[in-house]
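sanity check this chain:
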Amino acid sequence: MIVVFTLGCKVNKYESEFIIEKLNKMGYETSENLQWADYYIINSCAVTNEAERKSRQAISRVLKFNPNAKIFVLGCASENNRNQFQSKNVVKIYGCADKFDVLKYFKPQNDICEKTNKTNRVRKFIKIQDGCNNFCSYCLIPYLRGRSISKSFNEIIEEVSALTQEKEIVLTGIDISDFKINGQPSLAELVENLDFFKGRIRLGSLEVGIIDETFLKKLKKCVNFCPHFHLSLQSGSDTVLKRMNRHYTTKQFEEAVNLIRKIFPNASITTDIIVGFPMESEKEFEQTYNFAKKIAFSDIHIFPYSKRKGTNALKFNNFVNGEIIKQRVKKLNDLKIYLQRQFYLENIGKSHTLLIEEIVDKIGYGYTENYIYAKIENECYLGQFVEGELHEGNVFVENKN
């Protein structure tokens, strides 16, 4: 048994799935859950200090299952600092560029049919791009994964064409807004060319600069496109955005959101916000809080600021007190819960399509096209698209017409 344990972003998730698929074809039984295994592959994350700590902690966790296990560590945290993963049980440490070399350690098995791991996955991540050119002052990723590079258009088409059971794909990358075909920005064109896929198409995180009327109208023409836009805000204060080296203003962000809602009236708009960035004053935090409330995000991923050695943010040496950061996180989290509830209430009674992704005790669970989690209590099957309406209590009621 080989466990492939993933921390961090959707790109890591895609890369872990790639490793799992290759191991399955070689005849190995695999799992993505922490359990007893002979080998553990830890796909690490370094986006925050906490993510890096959890990556180190994963070694201790797997040794509780099998003290004699052989461990492989790969990804951003090991790229940033390989020494932190040194252990007698760690066989090999890989970075970002060479992470797939872990497959060279394993030899094909004879009993392939018996040991191949069967999955019932209905959603598939498709990596279309890697690396980043933005160099935000708080982020290490451009230094760890390198500059932005797009996957070949034909390679993406072939990968999607080969899918047989998946009902939804998520186009992901470190900065998919920078996806190019022949050197030209082409994310919308890629979505248009994936119209042969009969399931849904979602986009990963987007930068505000890509949002314009042309881009959105191209997406609108794609009948299988899901109206869920994750726009990375990071701060609702223009002065903080400038210190972060983010290349937009709150006015530009708001204009982009208004345009999305004009063309996709029922779209889910989610975001990331960093709380307690160096020198963040009470006034700047209140600007962020009020802006998030004004935009009315359907969800907010909240990150307390984490010092990262090697980032430009360290030059702002006036750091916010940890207790103040906790208070601000709590206040913003209370707003997040309120906004989630408001978005849900706005969607009650409206027609939606629910994709069944899990069935527990004969109850189906999944997401609507605009990313609302719901359950359906009548008979259904994994991977089924169900037309119906949202009711109170996250209950989805199928149309019987």
